[in-house]
Amino acid sequence: MASLNEKKVQQILTVLKKINYGSVLITIHDGEITQLDSTEKKRFTKTNTAKSHGNY
Q1: Which bin fits 9, alpha (ψ -120 to 50), beta or left (φ > 0)?
Q2: Which of the 8 DSSP states describes residue 2?
Q3: Which residue range forms the structural domain that includes residue 18?
């Protein structure tokens, strides 16, 4: 089992509280948490605009 200490737990909780959409990756080596990566996705909705002139 990974070793947890208060600092690591607080870092994980901080990332989880800030992210709305995305992923959190916790890397463990020899039973120790060694890295925390987060990727947040920003999605934009398509807006209805006038038809283009065929240019893409």
Answers
A1: alpha
A2: -
A3: 6-40
Q: Establish if 45 belongs to a structural domain.
A: no
The residue assigned the tokens 């398509």 is 46
Determine how many CB atoms are found less than 10 A away from the CB of residue 55: 4
Residue 54 lies in a domain: no
Q: What is the pLDDT of residue 53?
A: 62
> Would you say residue 18 lies in a domain?
yes
Q: Do the beta carbons of residue 1 and residue 31 sit within 8 Å? A: yes
For the chain, 56 residues long, the average pLDDT of each consecutive 10-residue run is 79 95 94 94 81 60
| Number of domains within the chain | 1
